[in-house]
Amino acid sequence: MRSLPDVPPVSLSAFARAGLLLLAVAAGPALAGTTSYVWPGTLPCNATLQACIDGAAPDAEIVIVTSEPIDETLNIPNRSLTLRAAPGVDAQFAPGNNVFIGVAPISGDVVVVLEGLTFTDGYVSVSFNNAGNGAFTLRDLTFRQALPTTFGGYIGVRALGGTVDARIERNRLRGRPTGINAAMISLEADGAELNARVFENRITRAGATPGDGAGIQLSAVNGGSGTTRVHGNTVRGGFFRGGVHFSEGLAALSPSDYSVRAFNNVVVGPSGGDAGDGNGNGIAMTVDAGRLHAVVVNNTVTNASNGILALRWVGGEPTAQVEGTVLNNVIAAFRGLTLSSELAALPTNDHNLINAASNVATLGPATITAPARLQSSAVPRLTAASPAIDAADTAALGLGIILNALPATDADGLRRIKGPEPVSADIGAYEFGDTAFLHAAEPATTFANETQILHPSTTSMPAANVFATPYRASASVYDRPLGVYQSGSRWAVFSQDGSTMPLDAHFEVFVPAAGSGTFRHTATAANSFGNYTSLDNSALNDLGDRIVLVTQNWSIAPIYNPHPVGLFWNGTRWFIDNMDDAPMPENAGFNVYAQAPSPNAFRVVPDTGASLIPLPHPLLDGNPCAAPQVTRQYVGDDVANHFAVRYDGGGWRVDTFGTPVSAGTQFHVLVLPAQAETCGAVLFGDGLESAP
């Protein structure tokens, strides 16, 4: 047992229906929860869930520990509360049940958190009518549609007074809006200040036919103010108001001045929308008499009637204006940019890639009008031939991320800015360049203690940083310390202890694009002590929330380190650790990858003593050909054993070969959506969504 500096706590987030905790940083108000209750449990939580809520102490946390359908509609009035599912529990409401959160003028400040709940034809509605402050976090919620004739579910937040902070993050919704001005995620600032984060949600309109409403909508009326940031969302289906719609002044008595930000979102309309009209709109901004200050940067829109549009409501005033910028967007639609001359002010536009029959706008000088060269209009990631690659205004993107406090991640939840110096970002919501695949040790490529990799991302690529995670594809066990090195023009995975490489060994291989967040590290006398070596890199320093991968690289220096390696964090720095306490050899080399947490870059905390640790994830569940990457982190006592990933029972697991994990062990996990979706032909993973 080793003595280390104190390790700060890591933010916890329940992943819906997961059998364990997934760790991710979820910025926002602290969870209300001075007193914790379990439902069903003892008084006051031994009857209905509503009775538990009504009888709980102020600022309480209620943890749902049953997967039985909850046949109640809940009211959470005038109080702070956290309501969440326990790890491994599918906290599902029976069809047609909802949650109402209401705050009246007589109440003080409130903090409400809903996390990890599932609704079928149900919704969550928040209404704040108070002079104080309201903070509402709605995270990891799932909304399902029971029948094609039903609407499914939605999230609504309405600010009628005071100041409201809304965090709507990582929710999954399928259904359709209830009307022409409704939305699947609806935000309204009605004479109040509303500041909202709408991050990393997945929304699918049920059915192939376009229709009324919006996917995500912000409406500012009657002097409503604030800023709404919309980042990393994917909206599929045809919405006449827009996949993302920002509105000012609809049916209002007085104008509003409101700020909106849209970064790294994907809007995909029904198939065929790039060849005709009537398919719904991509990102829309509509004003009546006031002003929207809009920054629309690095989004991707396909199959829409209008890719990005700004216009005035019918009957609107000549004072109506949309200021700001439309920058770095990929648009493959019937019309590209539609910026109405009726507006008193229009956003600037430049560095957009437009693949459209026409535009109603004066295009900026750096606009590219050419085929977008996407994988497809339904899967709009860039191919290697796309003119969007390295063509963005990178400085403006980077500044926008900083000024708006956004994660530095793209629509896949991976690094937003990649590439060698001088760094140039890609146009659109997806950043090109990362590769993942499965490698098998076969007779033609396996010699002694190594297996050589044959893949375009590694062959004749000496600068590639190669990562490998053992994959237990059969009964045989590869439980040896591994590394990578360049063997001639090829990279190889090898056994550090010199043991023979089994012919049936398999490895999940990850080759990230060059750039910030991937680097090589050498252990030296100055940065190493005992069994540790300290990492010093701007992508990691003082960033304890990072998701980090490590693989030993013998090509940096011909030094063997035949020991299981992992990570630990001491409060300011990350370290690579020989988990068996063996001294870290001088000049040992490592490939390191680091990025911000996201739905596809997360941590798993297993139960103490477990040896098969589930990795629940929409792109891993039911997808045996996925290629997850995993690195272990030491937090308390550690066990010096090896591990692999394996697929069985319809899901992925970390397999420690029967050795129980110790308390505090964590696993950093990276899932590449492009690889997982392509190999398994599963765009949407858990069956919640279907292609339009």
Characterise the protein shown here.
It holds the Pfam family DUF7452. This is DUF7452 domain-containing protein. InterPro entries: Choice_anch_Q_dom (IPR059226), DUF7452 (IPR055875), Pectin_lyase_fold/virulence (IPR011050). The structure is a single chain. The chain has 692 residues and is mainly β. It has a domain at 518-595. The chain has a 20-stranded parallel sheet that branches. The protein has a twelve-stranded parallel sheet with strand order 3-4-6-9-12-15-18-21-24-27-30-32, with helices on both faces. A hairpin with a 7-residue loop joins strand 1 and strand 2 (21-23).
List key phrases describing it.
692 residues, mainly beta, 20-stranded parallel β-sheet, twelve-stranded parallel β-sheet, 3 helices, 54 strands, 4% helix, Pectin_lyase_fold/virulence, DUF7452, Choice_anch_Q_dom
Shape: globular
**Regions with pLDDT < 50 over 5+ consecutive residues?**
1-33, 683-692
Distance between the termini: 55 Å
Query: Quick one: biggest sheet?
Result: 20 strands, parallel
Helix residue percentage? under 10%
Class by alpha and beta content: mainly beta
Number of helices: 3
Radius of gyration: 26 Å
How many beta-strand elements?
54
Average pLDDT metric: 91
Q: What proportion of the residues form beta strands (DSSP E)?
A: 35-45%
InterPro entries: Choice_anch_Q_dom, DUF7452, Pectin_lyase_fold/virulence
Domain DUF7452: 484-593
Signal peptide: 1-32
Organism: Chiayiivirga flava
In short:
A hairpin with a 4-residue loop joins strand 46 and strand 47 (574-578). Helices cover 4% and strands 40% of the residues.
